[in-house]
Amino acid sequence: MNDITVMLGRSMKHVTRSLDTIITVTITPIAMLLLFRYVFGGAIQAGGGNYTDYLMPGILLIAIASGVSYTAFRLFTDMKSGIFERFHSMPITRSSVLWGHVLTSLVSNGISVAVIILVGLVIGFRSSAGVLAWLAVAGILALFTLALTWLAVIPGLTASTPDGASAFAYPLIFLPFISSAFVPTETMPGPVRAFAENQPVTAIANAVRALFEQQPVGSDIWIALAWCAGVLVAAYAGAMAVYHRKIA
């Protein structure tokens, strides 16, 4: 734990000193929130209520998907700089190097989500959720962040260029647009609707939205948790296998 704490502190310093990271992870999702609220919101009917409330889960998921791309980029930079070899020559737990990056993603994305929610409250987002519902939302978003972050570790360790390391996040950022994050899936044509209703972002967005509104979550929360847990386990196993091959 001491080794992980040191690596977490090192990686967090890199984040706070990187202006482009702050802009991408926080300011860009806020800009999208304002765009959908004040430009597209008047033309979109979704959920029959406040559109800001409807779109907030999708904005949060996009922010997380954007943020985890920097985990891949920072890992790639460490691999190419030779700092991994230096760390491995020290009496530390080898896996702490990866966990430092992963927990940095969890912390930085948590801060980004909190800032976006505060901005949402300013422009009209309202939630009737109680403490337990907010904790459930935090748990789902944390699990989603961990799943995508461990997925990001794999290209971070295997990519040959910085662009290749972070490019994996582009499909993840695009995925919420083909889901129930911004409009109900019932409005989509057949094949698109079928894809949207059977991909993980829809279940996660629906579960978070229901928790925010104190509505019954039904099966969405279990589907969301199953997707997140499945991706997390597979990504963690794949990332550790790649890491052990790299340091062998």
From TrEMBL:
The protein's UniProt keywords, in alphabetical order, are: Antibiotic resistance, Cell membrane, Membrane, Transmembrane, Transmembrane helix, Transport
Tell where it localizes: Cell membrane; Membrane
Chief location bin? membrane
Membrane topology, record value = Multi-pass membrane protein
Where do the TM regions start and end? 21-40, 55-76, 97-125, 131-153, 165-183, 221-243
Which InterPro entries does the protein's record reference? ABC2_TM, ABC2_TM_bact-type, ABC_2_transport, Nod_factor_ABC_transporter
**Gene Ontology terms: biological process:** response to antibiotic
Q: Show where the ABC transmembrane type-2 domain sits.
A: 20-246
What cellular component terms from Gene Ontology apply here?
A: ATP-binding cassette (ABC) transporter complex
Answer yes or no on keyword Ligase.
Answer: no
Please indicate if the UniProt record lists Acyltransferase as a keyword. Answer: no
MF annotations from Gene Ontology: ABC-type transporter activity
Of which family is this protein a member? Answer: Belongs to the ABC-2 integral membrane protein family.
Q: What protein name is recorded for this chain?
A: Transport permease protein
List the top taxonomic levels of the source. Bacteria, Bacillati, Actinomycetota, Actinomycetes, Micromonosporales
